[in-house]
Write a structure and sequence with these properties.
The protein is 45% helix and 15% strand. Strand 6 and strand 7 form a beta hairpin. This is Erythromycin esterase family protein.
Amino acid sequence: MTKTEKVIDDIKKHSTTFGNTEELFPLIKEMKNAKYVLLGEASHGTSEFYTIRREITKKLIQEHGFSFVAVEGDWPACFEINRYIKGFNTETKITTKDILKRSFNRWPTWMWANQEMSDLVEWLASYNASKGRKSVGFYGLDVYSLWESMDAILHYLGKIKSPYMDKAKKAMECFEPYHRTADKYAISAAFYGEDCMDEVQDLLKSIHKNHAVYEDDLESSLSLRINAIATSNAENFYHTMVTSDSESWNIRDRHMAEVLHHIGKFYGPEAKGIIWEHNTHIGDARATDMASEGMVNVGQLTREQYGLENIFSVGLGTHHGTVIAADKWGSHAEVMTVPKAPEGTWENVLHQAGASNKYILFNKENRHLFRDIIGHRAIGVVYHPKYEHRGNYVPSRISERYDAFIHVDETKALKPL
């Protein structure tokens, strides 16, 4: 028996096929006691990844008391969704699709402004309607919202007539010459020493030092604090990204872990959260070649901070199908074909073990069987299907990267709004 044949045989023995999300109940039962359930995806444009995570999320909230959902999205945009599902938005004629399209208006818009997310947001709003103070939250963990977070800070400090409004204006004025263009700021900061670090740090310290002043309703204090952190970390991220891919990655993932910590603290020590991010963020970096490049990610950081027993990480992948993506950054999104996974990859051996949807729970009995390094598909918002074999497969020890894996053999593209 060859090495590949052995893996295929092990998959057959230790995987469970499923036809619908109701049949994922045994897997949900395994993750229900975790403090944080990390739900991944192999792309940002696959319908099944969103619908499966949606149904798992609903079960965890409804039956197991999970407190919030946190996603790979920007804080200001996601906070608008949070306000909407908690009934804080007072616009009488606003619809779920309206709020999604309005909030997620920066490329790649399809990542959160899609039909699959609309269904989840509708459900969350309905679920929260009778929950009062125990309503479930929805938040963004990502670091890209430099200008949007500054706008939110200015708006809130102006609203409460804060004495630190001048510091906020000073920080915003420093960024104005770059016309809200991240690349312009990044080049200026990295190569010409023209940055806004001092102004941002001064504002951040003032907000942290005087956080008690800002306590009021509608989670405003939490939002102000996270927007200040996002502004500071985004400045650092853009400052760094043109000179070091690995360090800018680390700034981003450390930021996401930091924001998650603040959300958890806001909900209290018994809080449990569900995190939606790409596999490259939620699967432990130490089980991939990222570790050799000095890179960390949310999967690793949360395991280190909260303990293995408090984190349950689930990877999601596909053998072939279609996906929403673009051929370059900022370009128009299109439906692309996801080719059949190449021989010897994780997705290929899963397919060879049976052309069906399946999941594997990694445990003491079988974890050692899936520790050998194997290529594992990763598709970004920019995608070139015919060249994917050159860089879209991450060398991984699957059973160390995740606690479970869900395989959807054939997938279809998201439905953008």
